[in-house]
């Protein structure tokens, strides 16, 4: 141990006596700060033109310069703007025919006067109709006609044609039936094809409250019920004729009415078929003889059945039971006969009962 200690002392003494110059640091690592400090005195030519001061030290422009700039901008905009009364487009207020040089844009354009935004949802029943019901109606009502078959024209139900004695008869629609108009004869039933498959056009909900003339509470409840089940603010209906025996006076308020179209109509019909009508135990269905010979079907709901609507069922205490009115539901379809209307309604899920008269 003593010899080793003497060797260490001798090495220390020799290190102190002999000058040793180290060209490199003992630690081989290089630091960015050390290198930056060493290269601070050397300025490459690529950054020699960069200013030493930043843009934040630049003083703000004076108010006179800003005001002159704003005035020049406003003057330039005014010069480039077109007068609105001559060059800006305004859709026409009236439709003056297909040959008029100024035509109204379609209702899908945002600039149209009758533009309605949407649709924002796709009804479940409408999707079922497009994917299932419409193809099924086409299949059920398909009539195969072999190629080369001469069509048999029947005298009954055909509209009169023009004789071609005038050049104005060309491409003209068929003449109306004899007898002063087609309102008394009804519309002609057309065969179901790919371009005229029956579908729901609108749904009208009418609530009649005959006691509303003497007590306005009946009218308030009727409007609240119709608005709850339809989701639209209803219109107040009035009596058109005097009925002395019933005590009904002309002009008195008699109920509420609203009409649903588009997605709202399909949602209401879906709610009827799925939630409301299956809960009515004693409901036999729609009478098979109902209809207006034009494909529109109507049926009624008694006051006791109105509580099955989900909008009224969850808050039934808000509606007085003795003032609860019934309602009549009219389903307007694009069918051309009651037979086609019943076929569409059965496909949607409405049952029918009774004897079919037409």
From TrEMBL:
Gene3D superfamilies: 3.30.1440.10. GO terms for biological process: translation. InterPro entries: Ribosomal_uL5 (IPR002132), Ribosomal_uL5_C (IPR031309), Ribosomal_uL5_dom_sf (IPR022803), Ribosomal_uL5_N (IPR031310). Coiled coil: none annotated. The keyword Transcription regulation does not apply. SUPFAM superfamilies: RL5-like. The keyword Oxidoreductase does not apply. Residues 195-249 form the Large ribosomal subunit protein uL5 N-terminal domain. Residues 42-111, 150-184 are annotated as: Disordered. Residues 254-352 form the Large ribosomal subunit protein uL5 C-terminal domain. Residues 51-61 have a biased composition (Polar residues). Keywords: Ribonucleoprotein, Ribosomal protein. One of its GO terms (molecular function) is structural constituent of ribosome. GO terms for cellular component: ribonucleoprotein complex; ribosome. Belongs to the universal ribosomal protein uL5 family. This is Ribosomal protein L5 C-terminal domain-containing protein. It comes from Trichoderma gamsii.
